[in-house]
Amino acid sequence: MRRLLFALFGLLVLFSAREASAQIVLDLEMDRSLFLSHEPITGTLTIVNRAGKDLIFGDSAGGLSWLDFTVTDNRGHLITPTQNRIQEKPIVLSAGQTYKHKVTINRYYPMATLGNYRVKANVTFPQINRVFTTKTVTIQVTEGQLMWNQIVGVPQGHPQAGSTREYSLMTYYHGARAKALYFRLKDSNSGMVFTTFTIGDYMTVIKPTYAIDTQNQLHVLHMSGPKRYKYTVINIDGKPVKQATYWEKGSNRPTLKTSDFGDVSIVGGLTEEEMQTPYEETEFRPLSERPPGMPAL
C-alpha cells in the first residue's frame, strides 16, 4: 500500500508539472546575436499566464530568486555567476496576462571573453516548486575596431583623484551594414573595464571628432545619419551627461570648438528645435523692446 501511495504521488507530481508547463509559456529573445565585449548583453523574457488563475512569482523558501540563467561557453563549460545574486522583484501575473521583463545577462555572469555563449532562462513556478526553462539562445561576443584612445587623470574632488583612466572610441558592425560608435572606459593601470556602451549609429562619410575639456570630460561629435550628427559628453566615470542632435544644412555643418580656456562647445549646424521651427514662425522681438539708450531709427 505504501509503494502504491508513493507511485500515485509521483504520477500526481508529474502530471502537475506537465500541466504547469503547458500553463506557462516562456520565451527569451536577445536584443542582438552579436555583442561587443564588456557591453551589456540584453534581452527580453516573455512570460504568458495560461493557467486560468493569477500566479505569484517571488522568492522561494530557500531565498532564491524566481529567475536565474544557465550560461555555457563555446566549450560547453558552465559559467559560474558572480557573487551578486539575482534579486528580481516579486510579480503577480493575472490570468491571460503577458509579462515582458528586460534582462541583462552579464550583470551576473562574466561573459567578457570572446566567443560563443549559450543562454537559457530558468523560472521557478512556486505553487509546485518546479523550475521551467526557455529554449537555448546563442550569442557571440566579439571585439570592436579601435579608433582612438587617450589616458586622462581623475580630477581633484573626485574620490579617485590622482588615478588615471583611459578613454577609447571603437567602431563595431551590428549585422552586415549597420555600424555603431562605441565608448569604453577602463583603469589605465590594471586594465579593468568600467563600462562599454554604444554612443549611436555611425556613418563613415565623416570621421568623428573629439575633445577633452578642463574637467577631463570627453566630447564626441559624430555623423549618425544623412546630414544628422550626434553630440555626446561623457564624464570621468563613463556616464553620458549630455546628448543632443544637430543637423547639417547646406554648408552649415556643426563642429567641435575648444576655447583658449579649454571649454568645448558646438559651433554651427542646426539644433532639433531649429529644424522643427520654420523661419516664418521664428519669434522676433519688436523695436519697442530695445534697451534704453539706443539711438532712434
In short:
The protein is mainly beta and 297 residues long. It has helices at residues 2-23, 272-276; strands spanning 24-30, 34-36, 42-49, 55-57, 67-72, 91-93, 98-104, 115-125, 130-133, 137-142, 145-153, 164-174, 178-187, 193-201, 209-212, 218-225, 228-234, 240-247, 255-258, 264-267, 270-271.
Strand content: over 45%
Measured as a percent range, the helix fraction is under 10%
What is the tally of beta strands? 21
Q: What is the SS-derived class?
A: mainly beta
The radius of gyration computed from the alpha-carbon positions, rounded to a whole number of angstroms, is 27 Å
Number of domains: 2
Largest sheet: 5 strands, mixed
Unreliable stretches: 4-20
CATH topology of the largest domain: Immunoglobulin-like
Mean pLDDT: 85
What is the CATH first-level class name of the largest domain?
Mainly Beta
List keywords for this structure.
297 residues, mainly beta, Immunoglobulin-like, 2 domains, five-stranded antiparallel sheet, 2 helices, globular
Describe the structure.
It is globular and about 85 Å long. It is 9% helix and 45% strand. The protein folds into two domains: 2-141, Immunoglobulin-like (Sandwich), CATH 2.60.40; 144-280, no CATH class. The model is unreliable at 4-20 (pLDDT under 50). By secondary structure, it is mostly beta strands. It has helices spanning 2-23, 272-276; strands at residues 24-30, 34-36, 42-49, 55-57, 67-72, 91-93, 98-104, 115-125, 130-133, 137-142, 145-153, 164-174, 178-187, 193-201, 209-212, 218-225, 228-234, 240-247, 255-258, 264-267, 270-271. It contains two helices and 21 strands.
